[in-house]
Amino acid sequence: MNPTTFVLFGATGDLAKRKIYPALYHLFLNGKLPEAFSLIGLGRRSLSDATFQAHVKQSLYDFYRFEVKEDQTLQAFLSLFGFNILNIDKQEDFVQLKGRVEAWEQGHEGLVNRLFYLSVGPEFFGTISSQIENSGLGEVTGWKRLVIEKPFGHDLASARVLNAQLSEAFAEEEIYRIDHYLGKPMVQRLEALQQANPVIQALWNNRYIANVQITADETVGVEERAGYYDHVGAVRDMFQNHMLQLLMMLAIQVPQNSTTAENVRLKKKKVLEAIEPLQRQDVATRIVRGQYAAGTLHGTPVQGYTSEPGIAEDSINDTFIAAKLNIDNYYWRGVPFYIRTGKRLKSKHTRMVVEFKDPIKSLGSTQQSITPNLLIFDIGPDEGITLQLNTKDHEHQGGFKPVNIDLYPDRTEAPEAYETLINDALIGDSTFFVHWDEVELSWKWVQPILEAFAENEVPLHPYPAGSHGPAAANEMLAQDGYRWWFDE
Ligand code: BG6
């Protein structure tokens, strides 16, 4: 790869320290960074290069997932880092930054690349990208790329405004929008599983599948993020992005001949386009909104949402959301996709369960039904793929009993989401990044929910901390004759 400068806005922030530096270090150790590589960290306070390097080093000690060795390799890595003070409102700061980047580039041969990573609040994205454009920092002989993190807007209108701003400085192919769920190894495996297995391909449709359940439960509450979370809620924080991405990744028909980024993203877009739109008047019946009340989590009493520091006593913010979606296409018509996510639930897990049709029930027989076959994807914190089948039960005449087959016994150390994503951004593979079309379509789908929630047109179900969420989320499935799996 040609000489590359990694320009990092928000270099002393939390994400940089927890995720970006450890990921870059891992890529460096594995020979995956460009041979000529330089990172310029930017922040509002002045730091010397040496102090910045010490900060990066400390973050490796605190957050790298393997042992950090104090050796020449570590020194070589840290020597790639420099720091510049920058006020995003001052064009002269960008001009000065450009001078520093160019000075480094002049010492290297070949076309030069610049990757701009915005590890800052989304309210700064527009200003930064205009400054990059106006200062000439965006003029490169090689490639330039922009990496940003969600949230991409607050609703449909603000997402469009933001995108219009970014588009003035960067073409769509140059924008890499991170949704860290797309970096999770199990999510990335879904595509290969479908592509390489005719057995899965053959079953991946409404002839065999009864319903799909996607759950992302968290035990944490609002933590120290009251200011952010109380304006966002589960619908914007998790549902509009991570949950809909999981749905797309599960429901796409992976193109057999070519899994280029373009093809995969096109297929994902087709899934989103096929989701039956939700009308505002149906939100109250199709969506379950919940908020955690006081309860007990693993034996410890915890307070309710409205007693958390920084949260108003009368907040109606959603900390839980469950929804039923129908994908109206040839493959999925008639298969409900149930989604739920929330904070302060019983355990932390992200899981997708594909429930197959009960062959006995489908034939209309009055015989006792059997446990359905399930294909279970555990995405995190523990990974796994399990297939639940039925076998003969020797103890009960004519009976069956379910058996689990572990399809993923080879648990080699999986890469961290950010290692994969930063590497992909450097090599220009956008398969696991979010295209603007996906952002726009997903905001479009949730827009009626945002409006109905804001106007308080939907019941707000309290649920005790440490539970599985409000009973209304169970009723949603019970009405269709199903239940959430693994809630015991
Ligand atoms: C983030 C949300 O995007 O995802 C957080 O802002 C949430 O509220 C987190 O806790 C969950 O991510 P993970 O990887 O722990 O499931």
Automatic annotation (TrEMBL):
Q: Per UniProt, where does NADP(+) bind? A: 10-17, 44, 150
Identify the residues that bind substrate.
180, 184, 218, 237, 343, 348
Q: Which organism is it from?
A: Paenibacillus provencensis
Name recorded for this polypeptide: Glucose-6-phosphate 1-dehydrogenase
Spell out the reaction equation it catalyses.
Answer: D-glucose 6-phosphate + NADP(+) = 6-phospho-D-glucono-1,5-lactone + NADPH + H(+)
NCBIfam families xrefs:
zwf (TIGR00871)
- In UniProt terms, what function does this protein have? Catalyzes the oxidation of glucose 6-phosphate to 6-phosphogluconolactone.
Pfam families, per the entry = G6PD_C (PF02781), G6PD_N (PF00479)
Name the residues annotated as catalytic in the UniProt entry: 242
The answer to whether the entry has keyword Oxidoreductase is yes
Q: Which residues form the Glucose-6-phosphate dehydrogenase C-terminal domain?
A: 192-485
Concerning its family, UniProt says: Belongs to the glucose-6-phosphate dehydrogenase family.
Broad class of enzyme this protein falls into: oxidoreductase
Question: Which key words are in the record?
Answer: Carbohydrate metabolism, Glucose metabolism, NADP, Oxidoreductase
Domain of life (superkingdom): Bacteria
> EC no.?
1.1.1.49
A GO molecular function term, named singly, is: glucose-6-phosphate dehydrogenase activity
**Pathway of this protein?**
Carbohydrate degradation; pentose phosphate pathway; D-ribulose 5-phosphate from D-glucose 6-phosphate (oxidative stage): step 1/3
